Amino acid sequence: MNDSLTATQHSRATTAPSDVAPAIVSVRNLTKTYASGYQALKPIDLEIRRGEIFALLGPNGAGKTTLISIICGLVNPSGGTVLADGHDIVRDYRAARERIGLVPQELTSDAFESVWNTVSFSRGLFGKPADPAHVERVLKDLALWDKRDNKLITLSGGMKRRVLIAKALSHEPQILFLDEPTAGVDVELRRDMWNVVRGLREAGVTIILTTHYIEEAEEMADRIGVINKGEIILVRDKRELMRQLGRKQMTLQLQQPLAALPPALAGYPLELADDGFELVYSYDSQQQQTGITGLLDAVSAAGIEIKDLHTRQSSLEDIFVNLVKERQ
């Protein structure tokens, strides 16, 4: 990410996210029920802090797209309010929408149009005067400058994703929604996209990310929100979420396989794995007493020889799956 992005966005650069950071998006009692009677969103309250990267996770059909579409002014809510940088998305639609950029999953622009014209035209759609210098900076920051005269149809999948971001940034929004930004993109390009997003956040843009890639949220987000069946079931700082809900596993690799757990170990939360060559012990790392010392003593007393051991922290994917299972 070039330093010019910071210059481009300097007027809205903010301090790093913190517990006291003000909200730039405020959702209050938001609902959506379609004409068929299907309730896509139950009453939702949500605040997204200025300058943060917020990851919204949820299974297919959970309500992610509906929620984003309402905030971006593309779908009308059935009830409740949404403020974007203090502007009501219904009563003050134009001002609210000007502050929001949306990067959809699919490129919908004319495939035979050039990159430069596509981004410039998008800026004009928001009533912004032509600003070739701004468009140039955006294209350079996204490594698209050398492709500015290329037709969209000639670009790779990764470059098309960058064009989507350039379009969303063309009118200088303060809030950027990324809907599955790296879907179908290879690992190397995905890492490049992560660097782009971090650079945008450093320049003062608030990022709201939806993703099916759990590692993407774990890598990038400041806070995590989980939505399921139209309800926000959890919003938490990522580190706090990992600390409070994450568990650790200790795997004991054995010299000789066990056909079954010895009675002396029946009181421990153990599982046999790898055809009896492993004992897996799950524990809460936040507890003052993890029980590991007692377990190792009991294993030794039972005459079981340990070849090696290692521990593993629960990933965000483990936490997410468990949260969704609990609500089913």
UniProtKB/TrEMBL annotation:
Residue ranges annotated for the ABC transporter domain, each copy included? 25-254
What keywords are annotated for this sequence in UniProt? Answer: ATP-binding, Nucleotide-binding, Transport
GO-annotated molecular function: ATP binding
Q: Name one Pfam family in it.
A: ABC_tran
Looking up PROSITE patterns in the UniProt record yields: ABC_TRANSPORTER_1 (PS00211), ABC_TRANSPORTER_2 (PS50893)
- UniProt name for this protein: ABC transporter ATP-binding protein
UniProt source species: Modicisalibacter zincidurans
